[in-house]
Design a protein that fits this description.
Blueprint (H helix, E strand, L loop, with lengths): L1 E4 L2 H6 L3 E3 L7 H11 L11 E4 L2 E2 L11 E5 L6
Parallel strand pairs: 1-5
Antiparallel strand pairs: 1-2, 3-4, 3-5
């Protein structure tokens, strides 16, 4: 599983992606793993949306080996 970080999350993690194998079974477990690796992500969790293979997901989504997960921070614009 590939996890992508965008915008300020790149600064928080110090990278733009990580590979996870095996993939966690769901979003809750994914967050636990990512916060374990990058503790500062905990401050962003409630404002970040997850997308699997470019579609937003909910907490019940089940992950597979080849999934690409994007952490999407809030976006503002005008």
């Amino acid at each position: 599983m590939r996890v992508l970080f965008f915008a300020q999350l790149k600064d928080v993690t110090g990278c733009d992606l990580v590979e996870l194998a095996p993939p966690p079974p769901n979003a809750e477990q994914l967050w636990k793993i990512l916060i374990g690796k990058f503790p500062a992500l905990a401050n962003h969790q409630k404002n970040v949306r997850l997308a699997r293979n470019w579609e937003y997901i909910d907490a019940k989504t089940v992950f597979a080996d080849k999934d690409e997960i994007a952490l999407i921070p809030p976006v503002s614009g005008g």
